[in-house]
Structure formats: structure tokens, C-alpha cells
TrEMBL record:
<dbReference type="InterPro" id="IPR019151">
    <property type="entry name" value="Proteasome_assmbl_chaperone_2"/>
</dbReference>
<dbReference type="InterPro" id="IPR038389">
    <property type="entry name" value="PSMG2_sf"/>
</dbReference>
<protein>
    <submittedName>
        <fullName>PAC2 family protein</fullName>
    </submittedName>
</protein>
<dbReference type="Pfam" id="PF09754">
    <property type="entry name" value="PAC2"/>
</dbReference>
<dbReference type="InterPro" id="IPR008492">
    <property type="entry name" value="Rv2714-like"/>
</dbReference>
């Protein structure tokens, strides 16, 4: 009888290490250039809201931001109008049943002094025995909204590559704070990896629940977390139907989407290995068990 397949995770990676102080995994997402459709920060925010958490620190002095570039926001409260300044907040989610807790970094990409900004985050993370760092981003791409959202995991760390069966990113060019933060952590011997999801560039407005959901699903695969995403699934399905209707109403857009579909469908696909097939089947069973009910139409296809 074949042994049951268990997909490798960051939790199982850390479980193999020796440590006296309980370790953490850093999960980071930033508003701005790395956050198309706000999908990355919305996904991490939903994960945070699905658990009890402790606020650890705030990083966000005037030295880090140009307020003409990253505007503060005003909000009305019962006690009057308040100004919300660009900030990055650090939270801790205790996961006693897992091998590590989660340290969530959620905020706004700074304008200035990126290295000093990263040093502040790294200092807090080291105080909580960080063992690995996962940054999350979303980008605009020439992909059709009618196909599964493309996602990718990559790392330059050989240990993470071997454990998670992933490779290094081949990208070279302008970069954002998630990549810089990962490199800075690696300077201290802390391995990092990145998760990216692609959003169809012709529907770049926020929010983007379908891409957000794709990120959530991948986070649930590699982190010891579960996210309350039933409403998000409904929003993603409604979002897709809405974009379908808009595309169908414009012949030029419909033709363009069809061209993207053909390019996607005819692109060379990686050879399916036994391990990848097992991973996809396990993913299917997990989602089916999580969302299926006795009523009709309960299996979401988005």
C-alpha cells in the first residue's frame, strides 16, 4: 500500500530544526507597487482577522514616507475626524498546535530609507526567533480572468528549495520592499521565499477577490493556518461573473480575452509528475471537504 502523501510545508520545514525558544514564521505584505488589486494585503489581512493576534510593534515615522506620494487618509469616528498615517504593523498569531507561530508584517511600502525600515522589522522578528520569511505580492499580467489565477513560489535558499520542491526566481529588474526585506533577512542567515499571484491587467481595480482567494489557498497549503473564506469565495464568484458580463458587452475586450485564453491554453505545460498529481488531488479533496454541503451548487468553480 502506498504511503499517504503529505505536501511539504513551512511548518514541517521548521519542525525538523532544533530550537530552545519557540520559533516564528514571518508573513509579510505591503500596499503599493507589489500589491495589484490590493490582493496580497487583503489576503494577509483576512488571514490575520481569522485568528486571535497580539500587536507587537509599529514601524512608520515621517522619515520613511513622502506623504505626497503615499497620502494619509481621513476617517470619521464618533469622536470626530482622525488621520490615518501610512504605517506598517507587526502582529503575532500563536499557533500552539503547529511547530511555529506566525509573525505578520502588514503595511505600506515606504518611500525612503528601505534598509533602516527593514532593520526595524528584522529586530522585532529576531526577538521572536524567526526561522523563515514568506513575502506575498500580486502583479498585473497578460493573463485571462477566465482561467485559474497563476501563482508561484520561489526561494534562493537551497534548503527551502529542496523541502518545498521549488526553485529560485529568474527575475531581474526593478524590485519592491518584499524582495528587499527577504534579502535583508537572508543576510542574517534566515531563509526567505516569495509568493506571487497574477491579476489580469484589464481588471486591475481593487478589490480583486479572485486573486485574493488564490493567495489564501496557497497560504493555507504552506502555512499551519486556516482562513474564514466562505464570503470571499462568494465574492470571487460574483466578481468573475461580473467581469464575464463586462467582457461580453464589449467586442474588443471579448476578442482580447479570447486571444489571452488561446495563448494560455497553448503554452507549454510542465510535465505532470506523480508528486504534482498527488499534490493537486490532495488540494481538491481538501477544498471539497471544506466547502461541500448537501445543497446544490455548493462546489465552487472559480
Amino acid at each position: 500500500m502506498n504511503e499517504e502523501y503529505h505536501a511539504p510545508t513551512l511548518d514541517s520545514y521548521i519542525a525538523k530544526t532544533q530550537h530552545e525558544i519557540r520559533p516564528t514564521i514571518v508573513l509579510a505584505a505591503f500596499e503599493g507597487w507589489n500589491d495589484a488589486g490590493s490582493a496580497a494585503t487583503d489576503a494577509v489581512r483576512l488571514l490575520l482577522e481569522s485568528h486571535e493576534y497580539e500587536h507587537l510593534a509599529t514601524v512608520g515615522e515621517d522619515d520613511f514616507y513622502d506623504y505626497q506620494f503615499t497620502r494619509p487618509k481621513t476617517r470619521r469616528t464618533e469622536s470626530g475626524r482622525v488621520v490615518e498615517w501610512p504605517r506598517t504593523e507587526l502582529f503575532k498569531i500563536a499557533l500552539p498546535q503547529a511547530a511555529a507561530d506566525l509573525l505578520v508584517v502588514l503595511g505600506v511600502e515606504p518611500t525612503f530609507k528601505w534598509q533602516a525600515f527593514c532593520s526595524r522589522i528584522i529586530k522585532v522578528a529576531q526577538e521572536h526567533n524567526v526561522h523563515a520569511v514568506l513575502s506575498v505580492g500580486a502583479l498585473l499580467a497578460d493573463v485571462p480572468h477566465t482561467r485559474p489565477v497563476p501563482t508561484s513560489l520561489a526561494s534562493d535558499d537551497a534548503r527551502l528549495q529542496e523541502h518545498l520542491k521549488i526553485s529560485a526566481s529568474s527575475y531581474e529588474g526593478p524590485t519592491g520592499i518584499p524582495s528587499v526585506l527577504g534579502v535583508e533577512f537572508e543576510r542574517y542567515g534566515i531563509p526567505s521565499l516569495s509568493l506571487w499571484a497574477q491579476l489580469s491587467h484589464y481588471v486591475a481595480q481593487s478589490p480583486s477577490p479572485r486573486v485574493q482567494l488564490a493567495i489564501i489557498e496557497l497560504l493555507e497549503e504552506i502555512l499551519p493556518v486556516s482562513v474564514h473564506d466562505q464570503k470571499l469565495r462568494e465574492d470571487a464568484l460574483a466578481w468573475k461573473h461580473g467581469v464575464d458580463e463586462l467582457a461580453a458587452a464589449d467586442p474588443d475586450v471579448a476578442k482580447y480575452v479570447e486571444q489571452l485564453e488561446q495563448a494560455t491554453d497553448t503554452s507549454e505545460l510542465p510535465e505532470a509528475s506523480g508528486e504534482s498529481i498527488a499534490r493537486e488531488f490532495e488540494r481538491y479533496l481538501r477544498r471539497r471537504g471544506k466547502y461541500r454541503t448537501d445543497g446544490p451548487g455548493s462546489d465552487y468553480d472559480i
